[in-house]
Amino acid sequence: MCRTSWSAKPTARSLAWAITKSWRRSRETPSREAASRAPAGCSRVSVGFGLIGMGRHGSRYARHLLDGVDGCRLAAFSRRQCAAGEAFARECGVPFLPKWQDVLRHHDVAAAIVVTPPGLNIDICVEAAKAGRAILVEKPLALTVSDARRIVNAAHDARVPIMTAQTLRFTPVLQRLKQALANAGPLHYLSLMMRVEPAAHPWLADPIQSGGGVMLEIGVHLLDMIRFLTNEEPVQVSAELVRRRTVRVEDIAFANYALPSGLRCCVEVSRVSGGRMCRVEAIGTAGAWVADVTQSVLWRIVGRTADAERVPDRPTLVTVLEEFARSLQSGAAMPVTGEDGLRAVAMAEAAYRSAAEGRPVAIAY
Question: What distance in Å separates the CA atoms of residue 226 and residue 191, rounded to the nearest whole number?
Fold first, then answer.
């Protein structure tokens, strides 16, 4: 019988021991089973990943790992739907462990990838830190700043690396926009917009599981993008939240963030449209730059002239996995830290408070 559990606690181990053991196994004495599962194109020195969460987004991680990501190897996975987990295990030959705690204990797992509803992140990430496993956790890092701080502190106390998968940072056209803005001169304001279809997952409409609506679920992409593009920490926000088609959480959000330099950042995010669109606009003295994420095109507009630069696109999850593995192998700092994830949650939390109180509020990190 397949049973899931959310209570058992794994034995703590040092990260260095776990990663060294995983790497040595891959480099020196790979088993026949591991060798047959090794994705094409992966280096022989690879990190064994334990994937916790195999819903729609978690399945994307699994497929990329199985298709081949340099420095990475799917060593085990867990999901709550046992029948689906067992079927996937038969298909790909990777161990399925119904209890996520067992993924953290698995001898071949050096790092955990957490792709679960964010209300579960706190328990899983804290236990992963106690088990000495490096952590890659999907945004939002947590439902609240308090829980996010507990996750960050747990990783710090256990001396394990943690990376928040703020995947929008790794979108090629937005990285190109950041390069362009380095020589763009003074900016007056930023406009960031993300529109997607109504939610397909029922838990997204449950504030106990989701923590909120679109501002926390997908708005954190844009909130993190403000910090990424400006290298500033927003200090104040004024927000309005709308329930157009939903009952318990917002499906439209508008927010205006103020930065220490005086720059203003206007955010619009929604889950009501029939199609997807994501765009970031930077308005400055020397013109405007418009990054169309959907089409992977960067526009430079000066006067009535608009020049388009098509930027080759690439799946962001692949880059996220590569960067995470590279940081683990080299000992370099994570490109997006747990603290980065916490600050995005803090920006969203302040927006909720502003909307509830009907006034601008300071952002408490």
Answer: 9
Whether 160 contacts 132, CB under 8 Å: yes
- Report the b/e string of 257-270 with b at 16+ CB within 10 A: bbbeeebbbbbbbb
* CA-to-CA separations, 295 to 174, 186, 219, 311, in angstroms, rounded: 12, 27, 20, 9
* Domain co-membership, 176 together with 297: yes
- 205 & 135 share domain: no
pTM metric for this prediction = 0.87
With pLDDT > 70 as the criterion, what percentage of the chain qualifies?
88
Give tens-digit pLDDT for 264-281: 999 999 999 988 999 999
Q: Is residue 4, in this structure, part of any structural domain at all?
A: no
pLDDT in tens, 20-41: 444 334 333 333 333 333 333 3
Q: What is the dihedral of CA 65, 70, 71, 73, to 10 degrees?
A: 20
> What is the CB neighbour count within 10 angstroms for residue 206?
14
Higher pLDDT, 64 or 206: 64
Instruction: Looking at the structure, tell me whether residues 59 and 195 fall in a common domain.
Output: no
User: 113 and 235, same structural domain?
Assistant: no
148 lies in the same domain as 26:
yes
Assign residue 46 the CATH number of its domain: 3.40.50.720
The reply to whether 82 and 127 lie within a common domain is: yes
Express each pLDDT in 97-124 by its tens digit. Answer: 999 999 999 999 999 999 999 999 999 9
Whether residue 130 sits in one domain with residue 72: yes
For 205, the token pair is: 């409409």
In a domain, 256, yes or no: yes
Q: Give, for 309, the enclosing helix (H) or strand (E).
A: strand 305-310
Within 24-110, strands assigned E span 47-52, 72-78
Q: Exposed e or buried b for every residue in 311-342, given b needs 16+ CB within 10 A? A: beeebbbbbbbbbbbbbbeeeeebbbbbbbbb
Task: Note down the domain range covering 78.
Answer: 15-166+318-337
Residue pointed to by tokens 């995947």: 167
Number of structural domains the chain divides into:
2
The closest of 223, 27, 15, 172 to 104, measured between CA atoms, is 15
Secondary structure of the chain: what % helix, strand, coil (to 5)?
40, 25, 35
CATH of residue 284's domain is: 3.30.360.10
Quickly state the pLDDT bin for 200 (edges 50, 70, 90): confident
